Amino acid sequence: MSRPIAIIGGTGPAGTGLALRWARAGETIIIGSRDAARAQGAAETIRQRVGANAGVSGLENSAACAASDLLMLTVPFAGQAELLKQLKNAIRAGSILIDATVPLAASVGGRASRTLGVWQGSAAQQTAELVPKGVSVVAAFHNVSADVLSSDDDVDCDVIVCSDDPRATEVAMELAAKIPRVRAIDGGKLENARIVEQITALLIGLNIRHKGHGGVRITGLPPSAYHGGPAS
Amino acid sequence: MSRPIAIIGGTGPAGTGLALRWARAGETIIIGSRDAARAQGAAETIRQRVGANAGVSGLENSAACAASDLLMLTVPFAGQAELLKQLKNAIRAGSILIDATVPLAASVGGRASRTLGVWQGSAAQQTAELVPKGVSVVAAFHNVSADVLSSDDDVDCDVIVCSDDPRATEVAMELAAKIPRVRAIDGGKLENARIVEQITALLIGLNIRHKGHGGVRITGLPPSAYHGGPAS
């Protein structure tokens, strides 16, 4: 995959963790932020970890959208809708937007182990309503611990990918499988994101209760269902 | 654990699968059904598989409730509330009721890969509202494939246990860990059942899409979080 990946709202732990892993896999990354200087700072930190040849740069979010048609959205749910409205003119037609947003109740001062009901069914379906026509939304990467992504530890987690556009599903699955040990699984239609998003809240509850960095593995499917690996 | 386990609505694949596994572990099982003869037939089938010494009998549901204070509920969501109302006088005070019900949309003619919204938040919380006072409800065993339980294959799945009564959580976790390779994980309060129930719908969707018998493993928690095993 030669096109750059623009990580919108990418200076938080999920965004920088994905940037780190993809930069290590040789991908070209643009970190997007409201503040271009902050994006450049995050990019510099990743270059220091990955090496001088790492293709990681930083741009303001709308410039990042203009620079790529492969977007990864890693913002808190509280800022998701507003950011997408602001970026409506910046997102290029034909783009693929991968959404990892989880509608945690923490967005409105509640617990991170609980979720909010989203009118459209899921945060990803809300995104699908807010992006320009012709943009394909994929839901993925919700259940991968940002802490683990940002570390040098193995990522012991599957990525369940949901989209109504099979081409977009394939792109997201390829990106997931670039992270060592991660397996990507086609989770069907975008509407299934509502369950995948919820799993993150369950994992956060388990993390609090048991003091861990929980992930999820799907067992019992035939080998053809798993992309990447090796199987756990 | 010496007390018998009464599996209410236990003649379906989930109920007989659990009965098979627990009978093999040396537990005493009472299969409950609307129809006592059907329950006895299911018990006989399990005795034939496990051996003549297997402690498996069959009773009408209310007689099964009267005979044990450890109840496992394995009915389709469509019949759950009505059955619990019928059994209100039969369920003994102080009983533990383990609920594996998933509010699949299939209950009302929809898809088994989708769920219904339950007013109380989850099928298990509906159960908690319908049982007599002093009965502790635990949600568990939703994600274990009934087909796999009913087979001689390894069960490659964790059981996430949710309850507001820590004593009931412990009992359900012990029962889960009696199934070889299953690990039990304390999933916190009963309200978290709403997510664990949803996971079953996701797994059913994956099973249809990929032709498998999906299960789930939680990764990344410290060893103390897992009961039973061995770890996958």
Can you characterise this structure?
The structure is a homodimer of 232-residue chains. Chain A has eight helices and ten strands. The first copy, chain A, has a nine-stranded mixed beta sheet with strand order 3-2-1-4-5-6-7-8-10, sandwiched between helices. The model of chain A has no long low-confidence stretch (mean pLDDT 96). In chain A, helix 1 (13-24) crosses helix 2 (36-50) and helix 4 (77-86) runs parallel beside helix 5 (123-130). The first copy, chain A, has helices at residues 13-24, 36-50, 61-66, 77-86, 123-130, 146-149, 166-177, 193-210, and strands at residues 5-8, 29-33, 56-60, 70-73, 96-99, 136-139, 158-163, 183-186, 215-219, 227-228. In chain A, 37% of the residues lie in helices and 19% in strands. Strand 9 (215-219) of chain A pairs antiparallel with strand 9 (215-219) of chain B, so a sheet runs across the interface.
